[in-house]
């Protein structure tokens, strides 16, 4: 059977969700440095925690709450093991989802944390409770985005639909006429719709004011939460002149929403979730405006060589070198912009294929290993020099497979084998894991 192409759009079925095979820790309470705050803070434009600099090479693990759903057989056991696996390679920061609205084009049908206005999926919230508690045991922190510009988890388009009753253009509908641009422009109406904003703020308030059923902590007072993020990859629309008309509403939404969160969670950081200039119509001034609010604590950057058309030949060679040269120029641009803002910078998403875009879990990762090595070294150099770039999160942790794989194994199908997410890091990618572990160890020593 022809292998499916696994991408970020259908990640809900393809992230890290099955039982681990390599050595794991005990998950016991870690030894912490004395002094300082348990909350991640910013002092002199540098992240700090426990009285020390806070640098990190972390991971995106967006499906963790679904895995911790108490009704999923074996799910919580798998989550505990996956967190131990991540901890074993020095990962202490995770980028996670605290807002999903469900969508026909989402990988798990119409399920979302917010099922409809005023109604939340309590099983997923219990999953978040469990996730936060287990992360705290490992002294991990998380960045939680509260909605999504894209359709794979529901996102802003669902709020527009709830506010207006107008159907959502679904670019993934078989035989449909809607394009990705149709969906993007529909979703961008979110920023200027007062009724959509009212619903979104209701969700934010519900999440921030939730009391964890295990730890008894309010979410807004939990140091495990490093940052609340306005959205995953908010954009003002398609990269066309027409989208410039959305910029005033886009800027106002960034500022007002960040202030709304900061007023209710003053001890936690706030970030935008922006891709960078790519998510701001390619304009440096738009990126600066989107991040200038005093309630936005740090700047963000995402980097997608293949998605943006920079990488055309997914293997080591001259074209790969050309693409990576362009990528590092892009990083330097954003370091310069972060310096203008006077704020730290986190490259919180980047990913690249296995060799030759293979989805075979046994295929080589030579190109990815080279790319990761270069990215992590740039982060290390910045941290050593006291520069703006102080952390990164690779996309995406795939561990031992998907929710589908977990269900197959639970049903006794020990021979089940699935294609891997194009950007997914597996528990068997030993050379990649060794690079992550080595660089995190250096960062740990550097932080003191």
Radius of gyration: 20 Å
The N- and C-terminal alpha carbons lie at a distance of 52 Å
The total strand number stands at: 15
Number of helices: 12
Adjacency order of strands in the biggest sheet: 10-9-8-5-4-13-12-11
Overall shape: globular
Mean pLDDT, all residues: 90
Strand fraction: 5-15%
Top CATH class of the domain at 8-19 and 57-300 and 400-434: Alpha Beta
Question: Order of helices and strands, N to C?
Answer: EEEEHHEEEHEHHHEHEHEHEHEEHEH
Largest sheet: 8 strands, parallel
Give me the CATH fold name of the domain at 8-19 and 57-300 and 400-434. TIM Barrel
Judged by helices, strands and strand pairing, the structural class is alpha/beta
CATH superfamily of the domain at 8-19 and 57-300 and 400-434: Glycosidases
- CATH architecture annotation name of the domain at 8-19 and 57-300 and 400-434: Alpha-Beta Barrel
Unreliable segments of 5+ consecutive residues: 1-6, 11-34
Helix amount, in percent?
25-40%
Map the helices and strands.
Layout: E1 41-43, E2 46-49, E3 52-53, E4 56-60, H1 64-67, H2 75-88, E5 93-97, E6 114-116, E7 119-120, H3 122-137, E8 141-145, H4 156-164, H5 180-187, H6 194-208, E9 225-229, H7 247-264, E10 269-271, H8 284-291, E11 299-303, H9 318-341, E12 345-350, H10 366-385, E13 389-394, E14 397-399, H11 403-410, E15 425-426, H12 430-447
Parallel strand pairs: 4-5, 4-13, 5-8, 8-9, 9-10, 11-12, 12-13, 14-15
Antiparallel strand pairs: 1-2, 2-3, 6-7
Helix pairs in contact: 2-3, 4-5, 4-6, 6-7, 7-8, 8-9, 10-12
